[in-house]
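Entry:
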Amino acid sequence: MQTVKIRTSQNIDIDYEVAGLGDRVLARIVDMGVFIGLFYALYIIVIIFFLSTIQSFDGKSVPVTIIVLGVIYSLASIFYDLIAEVFFNGQSLGKYALKIRVVNINGARPTLGQFLLRWVFRLVDFILTAGIGAVISVAVSEKKQRIGDIVAGTTVVKTTPKTNLNELFFSYEDEEYEPVFSGVSELRDADMTLVYEVLTNFKATGNSSLIYNMAIQVKNHLGIEIPAGMNEYDFLQTVVKDYSYVVSRQGV
């Protein structure tokens, strides 16, 4: 599984999975569906316009309204991907629906120049090669990049964490269990998902700096100190366990 490191708002680098060919194709299908729907909507508008003006239409000139609609549709089709990705954090409607987005190869937000390069090379990926170039490039490249991505230094990643909240929290049968850190109730589900992601990444990569940085973030947020004899890894595991207990007891 190929990954790209992305720095979170908590300044923690997390490995996010690179989006595969299937995700990208489905996202493109969604985007095409949007434009097909828009085309038929404009088609209906044109039909209604003709029916309302058929008696005055001399058949020698095309109404200005139809020309304007055609120009707007053409421009939207051409610039849609560029505008959407620039203004919506690397996502078109299709990418948003599939929960994927364009990122710099180092995990940062791409620059305007990178978005522009990626858009220009759609000509190669989808028009000159009829989409075959993009498919082959994504299938064989290490970071699942189409030709435009390779030139621009970008790729597409999945934005959803690999961890499901249902996997984190469980019921405790031990009624006598006492949480070590009672202040964990101040944390949110999103915080705990990130903690669990860090623990999972550490098990896969052995990157201890992830554990250290996350532990510092958590202890500073809770205003506590890590007890003597407890390392950062055990601290985070205890926080997850305590939070799981607190959540399981809510409403009891």
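Residues 167-173 have pLDDT under 50 and may be disordered.
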